[in-house]
């Protein structure tokens, strides 16, 4: 069975050696004696390591066209520089190999063990009998791909540059031990990273749950409830009316000034919002601007800050997305603006409600040819509406909770960044000899029969 790794083992971009000389990012010991490698970026290496290049570890081979072997029933992965994208009924190579991007995504080496097919955007390697494929893989993660990449629109690598990339080469026995050490340590770090990533996902779910409960059930757990008559909404507080959105706000969409008329776009200073901006919870900047001439001559209207923008079209996630507009701007025809009546509904409350009803709002837009919403459907949306004073309390409560979640998420993201840096530095230190792991053994709890057989 083919074993393809890289998404887990290579969770960050390629890295180069960290520090100078024997500087080490860990508590592992250094070697007793070093020599100058003659290469500034590599620094000193253990005195008994050979100085060579990747061609002393492997031969690099070209991938081939896959059209004649592709089949959804194929058992062998077809791999390009972006990863596996198809299956094949034949294989190009069988065994351990390190895959190196030739064109496109060039900085994500992959380790693979088994039968596979690579296309012409991905090199594969035949590893030398006196080299460890896993050591080659970890070594490849330290290649400065940005230095070698050709100056074309699509990043590219050549066989020659890869083969001649200099490296320090220990004995096969030591390569195997370094690979064992890095397998264990990177897996441990990756597990910690995954824990933080799961925490971030849980925080996102919790955010949504807090918003949804507050804007549809209120903050008082003892309040009497009534059936809303809306299946996906369920019960709402007894004293909350359920007006249509159109009774609380103006709902309109915009348009796109002609792209052929540069007087509408060149040196424009009026923000123009397209549906792509709705991926942001709040919109503070525009990616494009139109001119005063476009505002006067085209069917566009200035939308005031405080409006909520809702995506109208798209098979993806854009349809139904709601974002709070924090600037005065114009919008295109794929977006509608919900401009609240300030005497009836708070902008912040309306934004939170539209944000939490994303899924049912999307369902309103199911069409025969393209899933789409329109201003009439958005206007018909029912809103469980507390009084203005209660709306304010709900908004303040949610904002306080969201600030807590944001702080926890920021901490998790910083932790992930530090762990990824640690991972990269550890790989670099091990494969360049800045640390000596010859005496390392995995903890007893981590030892498996396979590891025991490989033990040095």
Describe the structure.
This protein is α+β, with helices and mostly antiparallel strands. Helices cover 31% and strands 20% of the residues. It has ten helices and 21 strands. The strands form six sheets. Strands 1, 5, 6, 7, 8, 9 and 10 form a seven-stranded mixed beta sheet that branches. Strands 14-21-18-19-16 form a five-stranded mixed beta sheet. The chain has a three-stranded mixed beta sheet with strand order 17-15-20. Helix 4 crosses helix 6 and helix 4 packs antiparallel against helix 9. It is elongated and about 80 Å long. The two termini are 27 Å apart. Residues 6-23 and 447-456 have low confidence and may be disordered.
Radius of gyration: 29 Å
* CATH topology-level name of the domain at 3-169: Adenine-n6-DNA-methyltransferase TaqI, Chain A, domain 2
Overall shape: elongated
Beta-strand portion reads 15-25%
The name of the CATH superfamily of the domain at 3-169 reads: DNA methylase specificity domains
Helix-residue proportion: 25-40%
Low-confidence stretches: 6-23, 447-456
CATH class wording of the domain at 3-169: Alpha Beta
| Overall pLDDT score | 89
Instruction: Supply the CATH architecture of the domain at 3-169.
Output: Alpha-Beta Complex
Number of helices: 10
Number of strands: 21
Structural class: alpha+beta
Distance between the termini: 27 Å
Largest sheet composition: 7 strands, mixed
């Amino acid at each position: 069975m083919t074993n393809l790794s890289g998404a887990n083992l290579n969770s960050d971009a390629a890295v180069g050696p960290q520090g100078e000389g024997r500087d080490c990012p860990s508590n592992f010991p250094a070697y007793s004696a070093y020599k100058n490698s003659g290469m500034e970026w590599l620094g000193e290496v253990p005195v008994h390591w050979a100085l060579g290049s990747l061609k002393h570890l492997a031969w690099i081979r070209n991938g081939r066209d896959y059209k004649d072997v592709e089949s959804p029933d194929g058992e062998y992965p077809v791999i390009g520089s972006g990863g596996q994208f198809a299956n094949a009924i034949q294989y190009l190579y069988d065994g351990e190999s390190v895959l190196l991007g030739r064109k496109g995504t060039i900085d994500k080496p992959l380790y693979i063990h088994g039968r596979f097919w690579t296309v012409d955007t991905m090199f594969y390697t035949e590893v030398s009998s006196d080299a460890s494929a896993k050591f080659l893989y970890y070594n490849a993660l330290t290649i400065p791909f940005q230095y070698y990449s050709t100056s074309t629109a699509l990043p590219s690598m050549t066989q020659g540059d890869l083969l001649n990339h200099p490296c320090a080469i220990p004995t096969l026995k030591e390569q195997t031990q370094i690979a064992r050490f890095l397998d264990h340590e990177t897996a441990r770090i990756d597990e910690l990273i995954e824990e933080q990533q799961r925490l971030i996902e849980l925080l996102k779910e919790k955010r949504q749950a807090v918003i949804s409960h507050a804007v549809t059930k209120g903050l008082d757990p003892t309040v009497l409830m009534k059936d809303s008559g809306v299946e996906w909404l369920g019960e709402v507080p007894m004293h909350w009316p359920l007006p249509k959105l159109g009774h609380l706000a103006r709902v309109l969409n915009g348009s796109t000034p002609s792209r052929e008329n540069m007087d509408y776009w060149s040196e424009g200073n009026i923000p123009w919002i397209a549906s792509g901006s709705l991926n942001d919870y709040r919109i503070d900047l525009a990616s494009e601007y139109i001119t005063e001439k476009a505002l006067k001559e085209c069917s566009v209207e200035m939308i005031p800050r405080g409006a909520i923008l809702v995506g109208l079209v798209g098979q993806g996630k854009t349809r139904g997305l709601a974002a709070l507009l924090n600037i005065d701007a114009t919008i295109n025809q794929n977006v509608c603006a919900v401009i609240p009546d300030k005497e009836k509904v708070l902008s912040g409350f309306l934004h939170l409600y539209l944000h939490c009803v994303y899924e049912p709002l999307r369902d309103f837009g199911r069409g025969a040819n393209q899933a789409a919403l329109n201003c009439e459907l958005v206007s018909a949306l029912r809103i469980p509406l507390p009084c203005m004073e209660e709306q304010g309390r709900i908004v303040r409560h949610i904002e306080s909770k969201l600030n807590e979640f944001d702080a926890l998420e920021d901490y998790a993201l910083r932790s992930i960044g530090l762990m990824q840096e640690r991972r990269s530095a550890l790989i670099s230190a091990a494969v360049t000899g800045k640390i000596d792991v010859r005496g390392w053994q995995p903890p007893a709890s981590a030892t498996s029969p396979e590891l025991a057989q490989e033990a040095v």
